[in-house]
Each structure stands twice: as C-alpha cells, then as structure tokens.
C-alpha cells in the first residue's frame, strides 16, 4: 500500500509536493505527530535533494502557522486561567526576546530529542516576533532534516526484509520504552 501511494505521488509531482508540505504543517500544528513517515514518503517520491527542499519548506510553514495558532490559543488560555501568568516557567518564557530568544529556538530545533511542538509553544508564549522565530526555527531544523533525510534515503535502498526488520525493531523499542515509563519499571 505504501509503495502504491509513493507510486501515485511520483506520477503527480505537484500534488506530491503539496501533500508533503501539508502533512508537515499538520504535524507541526498537532505538535506530537512524528515526521519520520513524512520524510520517508517525501524522499521516496522525490530524490534526496528535492525531497529535502520540500521538507524544509513544509517544516518552516508548519512552524510559522503553528506559532500563530499557539499564540492565539495562549492568549485565550491565559485570559481564562490568570494563575498561569504567575507560573515561574511561563513568566521566564514570556520575557525571552531578542538574540537570546532567537538562539534558544535555533539550539532547541537542532537538538533531536526536543519536541518541535514544545519549542513552538515556548516561543509563542515569549515576546519573540514571528519573523525571527520563523528564521531561527528553519535554520535550526535544517541540520536535523539533513540527517533524517540522508538516513531515510539510505534506508529506502535496503532490501524490503531489512526495512521491515528495522521498522519492527524500532516499533518494539518504543513499545518497551512506553511500557517501562508507564509502569515505572525503569
């Protein structure tokens, strides 16, 4: 089924590009959907270079749109829950601005284990403006996208059996991690 979708998208490059960018925006807005499958599909439908360009555009658009939506949501949330304004962490985030906020976003985007949604939420709550956030977010995300796209492009060249084994091992590892965390066995 996955190969059928990739085949169809490869035959319709403009629709495929739009689909990839739209999926990245959706993943950014939700803040928790993994983008690895989007990366895999984009790199499979296009070559590594064009796929990477589309992924960067999608990530940048997703970060900017989610920043705007999160900021509107935070305004509504803080007016509904005034006690949030007294929270130390939210106060610190709210006062971040200028180069410090810019470099904080770049650094947090480069780090692979920091959820993108958390970075966007923190930036949306700060005094940071949209344009510096968009630039910092995009610059910070490029190294991570390069690594992810390169790894995916090489993984797609592996035999199907090995790809399935890697997928199953990864899924099993996440399941074990989740269960250990849920039942505090670690």
TrEMBL record:
It comes from the Bacteria. Belongs to the TVP38/TMEM64 family. Pfam families: VTT_dom (PF09335). The chain crosses the membrane at residues 14-38, 50-70, 100-123, 130-156, 162-180. Signal peptide: none annotated. It comes from Cytobacillus oceanisediminis. It is found in: Cell membrane. This is TVP38/TMEM64 family membrane protein. Keywords: Cell membrane, Membrane, Transmembrane, Transmembrane helix. Residues 33-153 form the VTT domain. It is a multi-pass membrane protein.
């Amino acid at each position: 089924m996955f190969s059928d979708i990739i085949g169809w998208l490869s035959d319709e490059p403009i629709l495929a590009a739009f689909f990839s960018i739209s999926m990245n925006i959706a993943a950014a807005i939700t803040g928790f959907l993994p983008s690895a499958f989007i990366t895999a599909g984009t790199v499979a439908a296009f070559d590594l270079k064009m796929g990477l360009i589309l992924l960067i555009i999608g990530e940048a658009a997703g970060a900017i749109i989610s920043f705007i939506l999160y900021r509107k949501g935070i305004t509504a949330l803080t007016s509904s829950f005034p006690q949030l304004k007294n929270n130390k962490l939210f106060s610190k985030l709210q006062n971040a601005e200028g180069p410090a906020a810019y470099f904080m976003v770049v650094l947090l985007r480069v780090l692979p284990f920091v959820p993108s949604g958390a970075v966007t939420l923190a930036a949306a709550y700060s005094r940071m403006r949209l344009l510096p956030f968009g630039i910092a977010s995009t610059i910070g995300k490029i190294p991570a996208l390069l690594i992810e796209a390169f790894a995916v492009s090489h993984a797609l060249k592996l035999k199907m059996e090995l790809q399935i084994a890697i997928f199953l091992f990864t899924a099993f590892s996440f399941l074990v991690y989740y269960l250990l965390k849920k039942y505090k066995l670690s």
